[in-house]
Design brief:
- The protein is an alpha+beta fold.
- It has one domain: Cytochrome P450 (Cytochrome p450, Orthogonal Bundle), CATH 1.10.630.
- The chain contains 18 helices and 13 strands.
- The strands form 4 sheets. A 5-stranded mixed beta sheet has the order 2-3-9-6-4. Strands 1-8-7 form a 3-stranded mixed beta sheet.
- β7 and β8 form a beta hairpin.
- The two termini are 44 Å apart.
Amino acid sequence: MNLSTTKPPVHNNTHSALPPAWDAGWFGIRSALRFRADSLGVLMAAAQTGARYGHMVDLRFGPVSRFLVSHPDWVRHIYVEQAAKFYKTQQVKDILGPSLGNGLLISDGDFWRRQRKLAQPAFHHKRIEGYAGTMVDFTQRMLSQWNSASSTRDIDQDMMQLTMEIVAKCLFDADVASDAAGLGEAITTSNKLASARFTKLFVPPTWVPTRDNKRAVQAIDTIDHVLMRFIHQRRAEGLDALRERSDLLSMLLAAVDEDGSGGMTDKQARDEAFTLFVAGHETTATTLTWVWYLLSQNPVAEAKLHEELEHVLGGRTPTVADLARLPFTDWVIKETLRLYPVAWITSREAIEPVQVGDYAFDKGAVFFLSPYVLHHDATYFEAPEEFRPERWAGDFEKQLPRFAYFPFGGGPRVCIGNTFALMEAQLILATIAQRFTMRLAPGQVVEPLPLITLRSKYGLKMEVVGRE
C-alpha cells in the first residue's frame, strides 16, 4: 500500500456537523473526569469515531469544544499550510506561563519570530556536533559510578540527572551536578501540577495561596535561582567576554537584532533558558527511559543493537562520526518515539476563521493534534503496538505521509532542539548499551503517565548488569 496516497473522506460542512466523541453529561464534569482518568485511551477511542467524519471529532467538555485532528493531511494544514492562522492556546499560556514566561514554547507572532531567530544559531548542526564529546564524557562519568555487578537503579532518575547535566554544560557552559537533585524534584513537581491544571474544570489563579499554587511557586523559584545565577555571572563578565563564548546563554545575552538594537533582557533570557533547560533535558531523558524498558522486553531487538555496537565500535566510545554507521541504534530511538512520543499531544487556537480539511471553524476554535494517536494508527504502522525498530529500514519513513510521524511537531514551530535531542539520545544509548544490560526489577509496574510529557507512572527501577 502506498501510504502517501491515503486521503480522508470529504465533508463540506461547518464544524457544527461534527459528532461529539461522547455524551459530556453532568455539565461537562463526566467527560472531564473520563479524560483525566484515561487521556490516551479516550484519544484513541475518539480518533476511531472521528475516522467516520473526515478524521475530525469534537472532544466536548460540556459547552467547551476541542477538535481532535487525526489525519496527517489536516495536521499539515495546521502546522504548515495555515501556520500563521494559529497560535498556542490561551489555556497553555495561562498554565505554563508562570513557569516558562514568554519563552519559545508559548510565545507567538513577531516576538516569537524574533526570539527564535536570536536562539537559532546555537542549534546550527555544526555547533550541535561539537557537543557530542560532552555528551559521551558525561555519560562515561555517570557509568563510572555504576557497579559492574548486578544492582538495582532508578533508571528514570539516572537519565533525568544525566541529561540535565549535559544540557546545562552544552547550552549554559555550567555544571549543575550539585544542584541536580533539587532541580530534578522541582521540575517533576512543576510538571505534575501543571498537568493537573489542564484537566480541572476550575483552576484558581496562581496568586491564590492554595497548597498546589504554593508548591508550584516554590518549584519555579528553585529553578529560577540556578538559572538567574548563571545569567548574573555572564552579565558580570561583560559584553566582549560574552561574544567570545559559544554557549547558548552567552549568545542570547550578547545577541542584537538585525537593525543593531538591543538583544534580550535578563527576563527574556531567563524565559528562554528556562524553556530550553526544562524541555531540553526532559524529552531525551524520558525517551531513554522508555528505550531501556522496551529493550528489556524485546531481547531480539536488544541483541541486534549489541551486535551493531560491537561491530562498529568494538568497545570504544562513540563519536558523532559513528552515528551514520549505527542505523539500528537510530531505529531504536525512532521506534521508541513512535510508541511513546514525549510530546504526546499539542494544541493550537485559530486566531481567525479557518478551513481545516473540509470543515469551517470560527475564530477561537481549539484543535488537539496527537502524535500518540497517529503513531498508533494501523493505517500507517503495521502491528502498531509492537516494538519493531527494523520497520524504519530502507525508505519506510519517506513513504509515510509527512505527519503520520511527528514526535517533534512540525512547520515553523518544529522543536528547535530536535537535532540536539536525537544525537544525544543515540550517543547515550550507544555508550551505555555497550557496557550494561537492564532488566525490570521484580514488582516494577510500567504504565504511561500523560503529564505535560509522557512519563512512566511509577518510575522505572531496573536491574543493571555489566556486560563482558
